[in-house]
Amino acid sequence: MGRTLALVGGGHAHVEVLRQLAEKPISDLDVALFDPSPSVWYSGMVPGVIAGHYEPAEAKVNLWALCQRARVRFFETSVTRIDAQNQRIYTALGEKHFYDMLSLNIGGATRQLPIMEGAFAVPVKPIGGLVDMVEERSQLTVSHARTAVIGGGAAAVEVVLALAHRWSNREGQLSIISDGPLLAGFPASARRAALAACARYRIQVREGQRVVRIEPGRVCLASGDPIVSHVAILATGHAAPELIRTSGLEMARDGTVATNESLQSVNQPNVFAVGDCASVVGGRHPKSGVTSVRQGRVLLSCLDAYARGQPLPKWQSGTEALALISLGDRRAIAARNGIALTGAWAWRWKDAIDRRWIKRYAV
User: Considering the domain boundaries, does residue 252 fall inside one?
Assistant: First the structure.
């Protein structure tokens, strides 16, 4: 009798697993994928969707069709509880499923801030909620509502500049608030390019300002100086999914699943976890879509080896990944190994990489 493999989440790594299964099925392995949506966003293209460079459909992967091609059963539902001790998952449909092997690629959550009743705050994850808000507000021909993006990382910078490009007729109504410098950890030239782009779009930049709470119509800072904001977008960094906390899986310090170099839970060897919901013990890989993509290349080999009782391959994070940060218009920053360059050529490079990735999983 074959073994059952439950894939929870349609993240970048699981998308690659489906592609590999379609090309080379594994005998005696019954595979099912659980995700609340039949299609998933490719995060690399979302800033381009917000800016208006891509249609939403261009930045999505058809999970349902991939599952059909790979002969994987697809359950259009979220998983609400994991019982790793008894090898069961529970879904929002009220169903209970047994598994022999489990793989998690459910992404991460956005770190929350205190939000008062009546305030309008949208996290960057899940992506669908953010894109829907942008689409709805873009239908308004005149808007006096001010929008604040909270965060100073690449995601915050890309989102605020994408909004500025899309709403170029609404100058002076966007701000970005960071408790440190923008793009901390990137080369100084990347930070200068981001600040210059914000200046071109007349975005109010508030660095070194910690947000303590979000109230209706304003963002309150630790300095006591409130910023008028009718919409707050939270790009406040990574938080672990709540699903993991009650799963019985050993957690890393950040609350994600602690795994070994074979992407295997350190206390439940039949459970694997990749992407933003996991941390390789002793590793220093960033929480990013690039990491999930890289892990997807070896994940199926790890699962297959475990099912057959063979030694598992190890995932190697490799060299530092190239960071491509879009600047609203068709320009981008390319940063790697302490060097950052900016120009339209970098955006064309990013566009080619993103379109090639999407095409790889087109059905």
Answer: yes
CB neighbourhood size of 263 (10 A): 28
Contact by Cβ (8 Å): 183, 154: yes
pLDDT, tens digit (0-9, with 9 covering 90-100), for 260-280? 999 999 999 999 999 889 998
The token pair at 254 is 């950040």
- Residue that finishes a domain, picked among 307, 340, 357: 307
What pLDDT, on the 0 to 100 scale, is given for residue 59?
95
Q: Which domain holds residue 302?
A: 3-108+240-307
Inside any domain, residue 331: no
Q: How far apart are CA 193 and CA 327, in angstroms?
A: 9
pLDDT at 238: 84
Cα–Cα dist 54/304, whole Å: 37
- DSSP letters, 267-303, are S-TTEEE-GGGEEETT----SSHHHHHHHHHHHHHHH
Instruction: With respect to residue 129, please indicate whether it lies within any of the assigned structural domains.
Output: yes
Task: Report residues of the chain scoring pLDDT below 70.
Answer: 1, 140-144, 169-172, 284-288, 318-320
Query: How, if at all, do strands 3-8 and 204-206 pair?
Result: unpaired
Residue 85 to residue 88: CA distance in whole angstroms: 8
How many structural domains are present in the chain?
Answer: 2
Query: What CATH number is given to the structural domain containing 72?
Result: 3.50.50.60
Is the CB of residue 132 less than 8 Å from the CB of residue 49? no
Q: pLDDT tens digits for 210-247?
A: 999 999 999 999 998 889 999 999 999 888 888 999 99
What is the pTM assigned to this prediction?
0.91
Would residue 97 count as lying in a domain? Answer: yes
Task: Name the helix (H) or strand (E) containing 8.
Answer: strand 3-8
Q: Which helix (H) or strand (E) holds 127?
A: helix 127-138
